[in-house]
Amino acid sequence: MAKDLRAGLIGLGMMGRHHARILQGLDGVELVAVSDAQGDPHGAAPGLDVLPDVQSLIAAGVDYAVVAVPTQFHRDVALTLAEAGIHTLVEKPLAFDVEEAEQIAEAFERAGLVGAVGYIERYNPALQEMRKRIADGQLGEIYQIATRRQGVFPARIRDVGVVKDLATHDLDLTAWVAQSQYETVSAAATRRSGREDEDMVSIAGVLVDGTITSHLVNWLSPFKERMTVVTGEKGALVGDTINADLTFHANAEAATNLWEPMASFRGVSEGDAVRYSLRRTEPLAAEHESFRDAVLGDSSNIVTMREGLHTVHAVEAVLESARTDSTVGLARFAGATTTP
Fold first, then answer.
1. What DSSP state is assigned to residue 197?
2. Please, what sign has the CA dihedral across residues 256, 258, 262, 267?
3. What keywords does the record list, in alphabetical order (predicted)?
4. Do the strands 270-275 and 245-251 form a parallel or antiparallel pair, or are they unpaired?
5. How far apart are alpha carbons 137 and 133 in whole angstroms?
6. pLDDT digits (tens, 9 = 90+) for 269-317
7. Helix spans in 203-327 (H)
C-alpha cells in the first residue's frame, strides 16, 4: 500500500508515544507532523520537529490527525481540526462533559468529516470474537454483562477520576458488545487516595434491551485485572483482555431441558468449557488500521463520535448517580446509535 495519507499527532505523552509508534509503521500512512507544548519527553518521534500547537500541525498539511492530549483540551483541539477540514481520531473519552462532546460530534458531522473516538478495548481480539459470537447467537438471550477493571493509580492522570479514565471503557464496550445502549445507571463511588476525584466506583446498569450490567472499577487494587463476562441462556463467555483470552462455559441444561412440565423453567448446570485460539493482533494497531480505512471510505469498524457522545452521557449519569445516591436515566438523543 502506497504511503499516500499524511497523518499528524497531537500529544506525545504516555498514550501519544504509542500512537506515534503505530503511525510510523502503518501501511498507507506517513506520520509527517507531531505537536506537543511539552516537547517529546519519550523520544517518540525521532526525525520530526515537535510543533508548538494544533495550528502548526494543520499548517504542515495533514490529511488526518490523532488527538492524544489530556481530556480537558479535547474540545478546543478537535473543533480547530474540524474547522480546518481534518479527519480526526480523538482519544477516549470524546470530551470532558456532555456539552463539549455534543459540540465536537456536531462539528464533524456538519463538516462531513470522519470523526472517531479511541476506545482501544473494542479492538482487543477477545472482545472482537466475543461480540461476533454473541451476534451469531451462541449465548441465546443475553441476561447480564459484568466487567472488572482494577489496578494501581497511574500518576500521569491528573485531570479526571476513575470514571472518566477507566469506567468509560466498560460503558462503551458493554453497549457495543450487547448492541444496546444504557437505559439507567446506579453508582457508588469513593475517594481513598487523597485525590479530589473518585478512585473507586461500582456501577449497576440496565440496557435498553433489558440486559442488566455490573462494573467494578478502581485504582486501588495491588493487581491488574481486565475481565468481561457475558451470561446468557446457553452459557457464558469470559474475556480476559490483558491476555486476549476468550473462554466459553456451556450451560449443559440449555439443550436438554425440553420435558414439557419443565418448559417454563430454565435450568443451569456446568457444561463443557472451551478456550478459543485467537489471532492476537495489537489492539492499538487494529484501531489505527480501522481509522485509516475510514478516511479512505470504509467506516464500518470505527467508534463514531456519536457513539462516543452516548458514552459521555453514560459517564455523566454515573457521576450524577454517585453524587445524588439515586438511579439516573439516560435521556434518548437523536442519532445515538451503536455500530452494526
1. S
2. positive
3. NAD
4. antiparallel
5. 6
6. 888 999 999 988 999 999 999 999 999 999 999 999 999 999 999 999 9
7. 283-295, 305-324
Closest CA to 314 of 148, 174, 191: 174
Model confidence pLDDT, tens digit, residues 91-109: 999 999 999 999 999 999 9
What is the C-alpha to C-alpha distance for residues 181 and 308, in angstroms, rounded to an integer?
Answer: 12
Task: Give, as one character, the DSSP assignment of residue 258.
Answer: -
Q: Torsion over CA of 221, 322, 103 and 334, rounded to 10 degrees?
A: 110
**Banded model confidence at residue 74, pLDDT cuts 50, 70, 90:** very high
Q: Is 241 helix (H, G, I), strand (E, B) or coil?
A: coil
The amino acid at 242 = I
Do residues 295 and 5 make contact, with C-beta atoms less than 8 angstroms apart?
A: yes
CA atoms within 13 A on the CB side of 81: 33
Rounded average pLDDT over 102-128: 97
- Output the DSSP codes for 57-121: HHHT--SEEEE-S-GGGHHHHHHHHHHTT-EEEEESSS-SSHHHHHHHHHHHHHHT--EEEE-GG
pLDDT for 4 beyond 90: no
Q: Would you call 265 helix, strand, or coil by DSSP?
A: coil
| Domains of the chain, earliest start first | 5-119+285-301 (3.40.50.720), 122-278+311-329 (3.30.360.10)
Contact (Cβ atoms closer than 8 angstroms) between residue 66 and residue 7:
yes
CA angle 314/95/29 to nearest 5° reads 120
